[in-house]
Amino acid sequence: MNEMIDLRSDTLTRPTPGMRAAMAAAEVGDDVFNEDPTVNRLQERVAALLGKEAAMFVPSGTMSNQICVRAHTQPGDELLCEATCHIYQYEQGGAAVLSGVTCRTLEGDYGIIDLSQLDDKIRPCNEHLVRTRLVCLENTHNRGGGRIYPMEKIEAISSWARQNGLAMHLDGARLWNAVVASGVPASEWARHFDSVSVCFSKGLGAPVGSALAGPKEFMARARRIRKLFGGGMRQVGILAAAALYALDNHIERMADDHANARVIAQGIADTPGLRLTPPEVETNLVWFEVDPELGTSQDVAATLKQRGIRIHPAGKHVMRAVAHLDVSAAQAERTAETIRQSLRQMAPAR
Ligand SMILES: *Cc1c(COP(=O)(O)O)cnc(C)c1O
Fold it and tell me: Which of 75, 91, 124, 291 is deepest in the core (most CB within 10 A)?
């Protein structure tokens, strides 16, 4: 029996020997005192990559996003976002719980919203109403199928937001995937946002960690909020070293993940009863739907697991397969072939 191919998430990667060596060798200090040299190096590196004045290392992407929401708003403010975005869907209502902020959601096209949906959504100044304050976008968009946000849409939304005094936040948990797939540098994507959050624990393959970046004055507020949220860490250069190693060694290789995702997607596209959503796979995420005639996503997951492949049943008929650092080209081929063969057998005769 071959080893299990685990495609449930790009958070499943384990640190490589090179990354572990970098972690073991990391110089450290107390980061709450600003005295961890490896964290400081990482923060300077991220700020430079994103073209921002400052950056800060944080434990998770969720904390990173929620610190930004808090730093941009006052209780009684509202943020505008797409209905399936991580900040709204997968952070336990953190904007409400931690910042007293409501979310107004817009239906996206696989996660992508257009300025025409936003430009009448700023609440007038009126004592009955919340204050519209912030726009949050996600690139690439997880629930949207790993789609890359079209740059012209970001530009239009950003210049409108600036004209209207709204802040812009980017959830860039998978911004690196967008960078590799589009060839557009991170700083060019980030230019249109006041704050940007990026993850090291997804496709980059670090065990832990995210960072947020923005203007100095904003980051000073963000740093206080990180402490408030319990995210002040001490000799955390050990983890920053993994993130630095990932930035040095694991960005360009994500092109392999994107190629592997397309191979897996082809297996899905070839299988009656499965439908890619969206039909085009742009990065490392492969979302698809299971025709009820074939069964539920749990049925498909169980069939594939018996054959050594794990794919996440994200909803009753919705599934997500993710290519990542611990999935080889041969394993992607085997996945596609297994899907074609085993699910065809599962399909009822028509
Ligand atoms: C994973 C993810 C995050 C943050 O997740 P954590 O598990 O808290 O690090 C944020 N946004 C998106 C789009 C993500 O996929």
Answer: 91
Please name the helix (run of DSSP H) or strand (run of DSSP E) that holds residue 91, with its range, or none: none
136 lines ligand 1 (CB under 6 A): no
User: Is pTM, for the whole model, over 0.90?
Assistant: yes
Give CA separation, 293 vs 261, 265, 279, 288, 348, in Å.
25, 20, 20, 15, 7
**What are the C-alpha distances in Å from 2 to residues 15, 66, 298, 308, 335?**
21, 41, 22, 7, 12
Given this model, what pLDDT does residue 51 score? 98
The one-letter amino acid code at 312 reads H
Query: From ligand 1's centre to the CA of 341, what distance in Å?
Result: 33
- Alpha-carbon span 208 to 69, nearest angstrom: 21
Express each pLDDT in 27-50 by its tens digit: 999 999 999 999 999 999 999 999
Catalogue all structural domains in the chain, each as residue range(s) with its CATH number: 17-249 (3.40.640.10), 253-344 (3.90.1150.10)
Distance between Cα 10 and ligand 1 center (Å): 11
